[in-house]
């Protein structure tokens, strides 16, 4: 499967000790966030070239520059050099001090886009991190909504020993004007636990959240009823909650959406979501979300497909022990992430076929420990 | 006329209302049958979309609907649907709509009957899952535990208590703390005479009792005398200032003795050929033993030796280099002291003039 426009990162001449000081080179605007995460965690500088060289809007987009600004805000001592045309930049990462920060996200992407960068970095700060983000809490361009992050991403980290993460939605705001506000806080850990998750279990519970902003609250109910119509036949323990914010706290633009999460008997999670960005009729949105969830559950595994990269990252950063996890089909994001991890952290995964379209991935952790954390 | 009015009145669902209003606007002549057929057609389309049947969602004009209604005359299939409202979703208006619609459906004969179950069951679910809803919509991922990872629910209780000890990741530290706790309790219950448990209520009393008992056990004190030696140490005959002076003098003495010993001995540090001297015999050690005062006390100023006015000031003037210097003000005032600010004997004063 050829991925257009992808170039393998330069590795230098083998894994000599000088390779750790060499700058990593990547190409194209794709997979930007996961590369930034790897850069900051491994402490190696990166250079990204060829960012939209042939586009009408050449180089980095505004939301990407906003992302780099966020990186600068939460790290200490990092340097970012962006070229004149914006088609390349160099990032020398600093340390992660933690603490309290506030950031206004660009309205080109949702808050989930920025949170996906913060969630893997937060446990490795010097002090517990608390970030307040303003922007769009709904979804834009297949980004995760804040509901997804709260109900799926954060529980995924429980198996690595990172508990007590908190994401509070203070205001909701849909595209295009936003107006939402969330607070994300995370504890700090020194080590990550090694996981051995090979049993996907059977789906026992379905939960969901339907939200609506600046529209009739009935829209949320309609989405719920539409999704229920499909999901009731499968799992009886289905509860779909409506979360309607009113007035000031509902942002500036009308919108609605629904997030569905399926939990199995072994606490693996699968999720899907849909919003008014795809369709203006709530019933269609509900039905679409339900069908996406069924498709997601069908692909199987112990990890939701949009969170595969996160689980793999934490497996690689774990103690020097073999960690195993069962996955369904790997997405192209995941595959490229594994390549980038090999370049930056030097971690390789062993992929074995586990039958019925499932893959067992195992790796030896690098023994990453939070050196920023103070020894009290 | 009356029937159609009733039909128009009970439709509460906003979208259907809109469609019915629109269709009412279109057909100006108000043919009852056309209106009702149009509204029923709209309702059916709504129902089909809601329940996810695989039909293309094209709009259906009222004329087409009327045509279809006329052709499907004997279709009396009733579809039972379990419309359990979710937690907060079913409003009162919604409930009223559903029960009313079943009435409306029942009136006309040539229509597919759709019966909605009452929403009372939905209300029960709402009250039952209220806690669950709060837990689910909570911001903390650990509180989603009821939903997310139930195996860590037991850990969460311990985790909250251990919040302060975030450094104790290891099993060893945990078991050591447990052992410490057990030891502490053993000391309290077994080693102390039972009378102390009733008399020593305050933490400081307990501390003294335990330290005293340990001294007795270690044979530093006679049995029964442990805590009394501690008390004697705390109730000193001297005032605080004198006590601090004693501490300072002792420190200086020790420092000189150490230097002498180091200069005299063959190896670095205090020691003879045979080995280290027992520090308890040569004098007080730097570290505090039980009942030994070290360190700064409250009100203890940092004293700088050599700054002290030696000799003959008698409270006025500066005596330096064998000379007593008096300022004009002092002379003018006779024997009056220079007033100005708090005076601390022994502290360096910077005076202008």
UniProtKB/TrEMBL annotation, chain A:
Q: Does the keyword Transport apply?
A: no
Q: Which PANTHER family match?
A: RNA 3' TERMINAL PHOSPHATE CYCLASE, RNA 3'-TERMINAL PHOSPHATE CYCLASE-LIKE PROTEIN
SUPFAM superfamilies to which the protein is assigned, alphabetical? EPT/RTPC-like (SSF55205)
Q: Which domain of life is it from?
A: Eukaryota
- Give the organism the record lists: Kockovaella imperatae
What's the protein called, per UniProt?
RNA-3'-phosphate cyclase
Q: What is its main location?
A: nucleus
- One GO MF term attached to the UniProt entry: RNA endonuclease activity
| BP-aspect Gene Ontology terms | endonucleolytic cleavage of tricistronic rRNA transcript (SSU-rRNA, 5.8S rRNA, LSU-rRNA)
Keyword terms: Nucleus, Ribosome biogenesis
Q: What are the record's GO terms for cellular component?
A: nucleolus
* Coiled-coil zones: none
Q: Which compartments is it annotated to reside in?
A: Nucleus, Nucleolus
Residue ranges annotated for the RNA 3'-terminal phosphate cyclase domain, each copy included: 26-351
Family indicated by similarity: Belongs to the RNA 3'-terminal cyclase family. Type 2 subfamily.
Identify the residues that the record assigns to the RNA 3'-terminal phosphate cyclase insert domain, covering every copy: 198-297
Q: Identify the PROSITE patterns for this entry.
A: RTC
Among InterPro entries, the record links this protein to: RNA3'-term_phos_cycl_insert, RNA3'_phos_cyclase_dom, RNA3'_phos_cyclase_dom_sf, RNA3'_term_phos_cyc, RNA3'_term_phos_cyc_type_2, RNA3'_term_phos_cycl-like_CS, RNA3'P_cycl/enolpyr_Trfase_a/b, RPTC_insert
TrEMBL record, chain B:
Query: What is one term from the GO cellular component aspect held by the record?
Result: nucleolus
- Protein name stated in the entry: Protein FAF1
Q: InterPro entries, per this entry?
A: Ribosomal_biogenesis_FAF1-like (IPR053030)
* Organism domain of life: Eukaryota
GO biological process terms on file: maturation of SSU-rRNA from tricistronic rRNA transcript (SSU-rRNA, 5.8S rRNA, LSU-rRNA)
Question: Which residue intervals are annotated with compositional bias (Acidic residues) in the record?
Answer: 77-103
Region of interest called Disordered, as start-end residue ranges on this chain: 1-32, 52-181, 274-316, 330-353
**Feature: compositional bias, Basic residues:** 344-353
Q: What ranges does the record list as Basic and acidic residues composition bias? A: 121-135, 294-311
Q: What is the lineage of its organism?
A: Eukaryota, Fungi, Dikarya, Basidiomycota, Agaricomycotina
